[in-house]
Amino acid sequence: MGLRERISIEGALTKLAAFQCRHYKKIIVASLIITVVLGYGATELHFQGNIAKEMPQDLPVFVLQEKIASKFRGEEFMIIAVCIDKETSAKNIPRDIRDPKVIASVVDLHERLEAESSIERVQSIAPFFQQDVPDDIEGVKKKLASVPGAESFFNDDFSIMLVYVSPIAGLSEEKVKEATDMIQNDVDAITKPAGVDYKITGMAPLIIELLRLMREDMVFTTLVAAAIIFGLLALLERSFTKGFLVFLPLVFGITWTFGTMGFLGIPISISTVMIGAVIIGLGVEYGIFMVSRYYEERNHGSTTREALRIAVTNIGASTFGSAATTTAAFFALTLSVMPMIQHLGQTLAMGIVFCWIAAVLVNPCFVVFEERIEARKLAEGLRKWVEKG
Asked: Rounded to two decimals, what is the model's pTM?
């Protein structure tokens, strides 16, 4: 940063400090309103668990994959795995998935699923046994042997049989949950042989489970990082209030980042699920420098206006270079051909910018506000003491 640019930045920050000292309440109210609005935007966050959607869709290999997935058995296909529980030692349970009782239950399940309006197609061995199910396993084997392709529904040791279900609904989280619940209700309604489990799997349920884990991990890691950082700040500052003032820009930065992501439609994916903890770790230094410098000047006898001018001007100008270079590095990630890397760069860059703005523009106003409140409390205490004396 050249001398001329630094002088211009410091001049602007000096004017900002004077404005903050005069209108700190208005800035606090405005920042809270913005936070509420962007907090609503955070509720619109979209979680993307389908990694394929985070890949460059215009490359030939991905275009071909999309065509194949839409033409043949795509990601929306769900699978019911009918499995023999090999760990059980109970007697009179099927040891071969081709047991007539299991076949009869699959026929019943197939018919129930086909009757559902939200199911487009069901594939299983049931159509081969719609007329009747043989009384013994040998009859079942003989029937299956006469049907070409029937072996594709079984594994090699005949302990698992598959039922393929294709919902009409798209691969949205809500619709997949509805389809999964509907399939589970049909599974619960049939008569199932003892020792046989019916498990729902496939790409769609896996994506839903991944979304659940991502959501829980994002909340957990962000809260853990926030708790650790806040505890360390309170310990280092030797004051709960000062620790909170240092931590406040992170609250604004995280809220504004998630809210902006929600409004812009930037999804939370595997690459961006940890941005909360990362932003907290990278952005905490701006608040530390600003608050520490302000109280240092106050302890040296400077007035509120002078301490605010020095802190905002010097620390704001110094941290501007750090924030700008870090933001530029993260924005460079947007040049990647991978959408997931682009989203990572966008979110981290926004997080750093918002943390710096909160630390330089908003946080000093809260510091002045807190100091004025403490001064009033002290004056009120002295007045009561004088009256009693």
From this structure: 0.74
